[in-house]
Amino acid sequence: MNSKTIQMPREVHIGPNVLDEIGKICKNLRLFDEALVVSGFHTFDVAGRQTVDALESSDFGVEVVKVKDASIESVEMVQDKIANASVVLGVGGGKIIDVAKLASTNAHSYFLSVPTTASHDGIASPMASIKNDKGSISKNANSPMAVVADTGIINTAPFRLIASGCADIVSNYTAIKDWKLAYRLKNEDYSESAAALSEMTAKLIINSSDSIKEGLEESARIVVKSLFSSGMAISIAGSSRPASGSEHLFSHALDRVAKKPALHGEQCGVGTIMMMHLHGGDWRSIRNILKTIGAPTTASELGIDDDDIVDALTMAHTIRPERYTILGDNGLTREAAIKLAKKTEII
Ligand SMILES: NC(=O)C1=CN([C@@H]2O[C@H](COP(=O)(O)OP(=O)(O)OC[C@H]3O[C@@H](n4cnc5c(N)ncnc54)[C@H](O)[C@@H]3O)[C@@H](O)[C@H]2O)C=CC1
Ligand SMILES: O=C(CO)COP(=O)(O)O
Ligand SMILES: [Zn+2]
């Protein structure tokens, strides 16, 4: 039996105003002197400035770099700025955290994940989804040393972002079905524990769907903890397989074809409805759960043209050819894609 290394965050700080403690958190982790804060242009105002102030009040020298996308160029730009920083902090949404995560890995620096929204399950995972002109590449990275999730800040984000995070978790259902299929048909490595954790996390969100409401700090806390658990399933598996299957391939394809893509989790949620149908599962219950949460369930709710949905369905299998899913090696024909999207009332 070959050996396996599982990386997980050492600490998770979750609650209102934990961001004010980030300087002390870094010192307790034996991180000193210089820090690099990576943020988005908007999220710097949301939490980046506050992060800098808290670090400086703990005698850190702080440099700031702002990025706008999750491209390899952004990763390299951040990497070049790490220099003497003992720690890199990603303060923002999924793209910001992924860029900071991969840049710090490449520069052999420590990384702290400071999510400003609960919209994706990359806050604690050891993966970074980097975009290129062909789509999205899931790259191995180091898990964050710590996650500092200020639910006071996360709770003030537009509720659409939290609903998107819930949809990203619900998508674990079809991801696991695809993973089991690849295990049976292609003898792909499969982890029962990672799959069980991933499915349990999705079940938790489904069972809480009635109580996840806008403006409730408790809702933000429930979703952050679920996103964290989903990230742990990715850690145990050593890949994004427990949380990323055919529904994610559809979302990554949409990112390429849509004029204005929706949020990652929103697209994955709609993809889950259709892929659950392909798996012969209860797609209507997935749709009802997403409706209860307040996540999109149709092309028009995503703000995406019907043709783009069909185009993304027909090219999804090409996004990551090595990842076998219900889409098979040749994917959907255009006619089958139209039929699927209509049957599930996406278009
Ligand atoms: N590495 C991993 O394991 C995973 C990575 N991902 C990646 O994460 C990305 C999706 O992340 P998202 O956060 O959904 O999208 P995003 O990072 O593209 O955008 C988030 C948006 O929300 C805004 N925002 C963030 N916090 C806010 C706040 N408190 N108030 C107001 N606005 C706020 C940001 O300015 C930005 O416009 C995708 O690239 C996806 O591939 C998703 C899941 C797992
Ligand atoms: O989005 C993810 C899990 O929710 C990561 O998946 P990818 O590996 O498809 O980028
Ligand atoms: Zn996802």
From TrEMBL:
User: Which Enzyme Commission number(s) are listed?
Assistant: 1.1.1.261
Q: Name one GO molecular function term.
A: glycerol-1-phosphate dehydrogenase (NAD+) activity
Q: Which cofactor does it need?
A: Zn(2+)
State which pathway it belongs to. Membrane lipid metabolism; glycerophospholipid metabolism
Catalyses: sn-glycerol 1-phosphate + NADP(+) = dihydroxyacetone phosphate + NADPH + H(+); sn-glycerol 1-phosphate + NAD(+) = dihydroxyacetone phosphate + NADH + H(+)
Q: Where in the cell is it found?
A: Cytoplasm
Q: Which parts of the sequence bind NAD(+)?
A: G94, K95, I96, I97, D98, T116, T117, A118, S119, S125
**According to the record, how does the cofactor bind?**
Binds 1 zinc ion per subunit.
User: Cellular component per GO?
Assistant: cytoplasm
Q: What is its main location?
A: cytoplasm
BP-aspect Gene Ontology terms? glycerophospholipid metabolic process; phospholipid biosynthetic process
Q: Which UniProt keywords apply?
A: Cytoplasm, Lipid biosynthesis, Lipid metabolism, Metal-binding, NAD, NADP, Oxidoreductase, Phospholipid biosynthesis, Phospholipid metabolism, Zinc
Q: Give the residues the record marks as binding Zn(2+).
A: D168, H248, H264
Question: Where substrate is bound, by residue?
Answer: D121, D168, H252
Which Pfam families does the entry link to? Fe-ADH_2 (PF13685)
Residue numbers binding glycerol:
D121, D168, H248, H264
What is the recorded function of this protein according to its Swiss-Prot or TrEMBL entry? Catalyzes the NAD(P)H-dependent reduction of dihydroxyacetonephosphate (DHAP or glycerone phosphate) to glycerol 1-phosphate (G1P). The G1P thus generated is used as the glycerophosphate backbone of phospholipids in the cellular membranes of Archaea.
> Which HAMAP family does the entry mention?
G1P_dehydrogenase_A
| Protein family | Belongs to the glycerol-1-phosphate dehydrogenase family.
Cite the record's note on assembly: Homooctamer.
Under the heading NCBIfam families, the entry gives: PRK00843.1
Annotated protein name in UniProt = Glycerol-1-phosphate dehydrogenase [NAD(P)+]
Origin species, per record, is: Methanobrevibacter olleyae
The major lineage groups are: Archaea, Methanobacteriati, Methanobacteriota, Methanomada group, Methanobacteria
